[in-house]
Structures are given as C-alpha cells and as structure tokens.
Amino acid sequence: MKKHEESRRAFLIGTAVGASAVAGAGLVPNALAQTHEQHNAADVPATTAQGHAHAGGHGAFLNDDDAVTVTAFAERIMPGAPGKPGARDAGVLNYIDLALAGAYSDLQDFYRRGLAALDAHCRTTYSKPFSQLTAAQQDEVITALEGGKATGFTWPSAQAFFNTVRTHTMEGMFADPVYGGNRNFAGWKLVGFPGGQIEFTAEDMASSGPFTRQPIVGLQSKAAG
Q1: 165 in a domain, yes or no?
Q2: Is 209 a domain residue?
Q3: Spatial separation of the C-alpha atoms in residues 196 and 117, rounded to whole Å
Q4: Which end of the chain lies in a sparser environment, N or C, as judged by fewer CB atoms within 10 Å?
Q5: Which of 16-20, 120-124, 141-145 comes out lowest in average pLDDT?
C-alpha cells in the first residue's frame, strides 16, 4: 500500500476510534449532520438490510454503473490492504444503496446529479469514467472534489458531494452491521471495537490487549446462519 493510502487509513481509523457514535447505530460525523440533519441509519429496517446483503449488494436504488462508481470511490476513501479491510470488504456499497432507498431517500437526486457530474468531469479530464481511472487518477479527482476544484459541478457542489460520500463511507465501515455495511464486523475489528456484549469479565477489563470475542448482534447472526 502506498504511503498516502496508509496515512489516509490511519486518519480515518483514528476518527472512528475517537467518535463515540461508533458504538451506536451508525457513525455520523459533522459533515453529514450539516447536510442531512433529520435522518439516521437506524431508520433502515434491519430485516431489509440483512436480506439485501444476502441478495448481492445493490439494486435497492443504485443502478449497475452508479454502483461500480460508488464502490470505486469508497475504496479510494477507505482503501483495503492485506489483512486490513477496506470499503469493498466491509460492504459499504450495500450500506449506501440501502440508505438511499430508505432513510436517506431525500438524497437520491443529490447522488444522481453528483455521480453524473463526477462522470462528466472524469470524461472531460481523462476521457474515461471514474471507475476506469487508475488509482492515482482517482485520487487526483477526489483531491479536486475535496478542494472544490473539480469542474462541472453546480448542485451539489464538488465539496458537498465529496463530504457526503466520505461520510456515508465511514458509516458503512463502522455502523452496526445490521444496517447493511460493516460486513463480518470488518470495521469494528479494524478499530478493536468489541460491539455489544452481555458482560465484560474482570479479565477483559484488566487486559490491555485486543478484545477477541465476536460482537453480539443477534439479528445479524441469525441472518448469516
């Protein structure tokens, strides 16, 4: 993994570890709170999220082309590495797709227009859609979005689109798996978060090592069986 990817992962993981919301239904940083104050990932029905995850990952809202783009974008925000799951491993696409079909349905046009502007910018700049760019080129595009320098964006703005997708990527990595992301507790394992437990023993509380028992998420465990 390249050095800047390692730095990006370390920063995002540090953000997740420091956010008390990681222990709740979803991780909702300030970027999302500013653009989407009235919704919460907990609004997504658990049974729907589980069924959709087993059905193959998208189709609740995103079409095939948009799903490929969102997957590639999220993976550059939270890249995977050997032994270190990224957005693709954690099923972030599934989380975002379900959220846009449910709790975040008022962001559907935001995503449609943002993804169309992203595609137009990439075709103008590189003569290819985002998903077909090299990792380095994708990072260049994301940097341009973050800095508000990507061309062709009106509403949403380039920065607003970047901030929202980044926030949803973080939610998909670290929210309770029952909402469609954090597949196999990938995000929780990454930050050492133990999830819900009936109790912690005295040995657990005294230990300075990683917590090794699986998180207890009853509905998700039943759906996986």
Answers
A1: yes
A2: no
A3: 41
A4: C
A5: 16-20
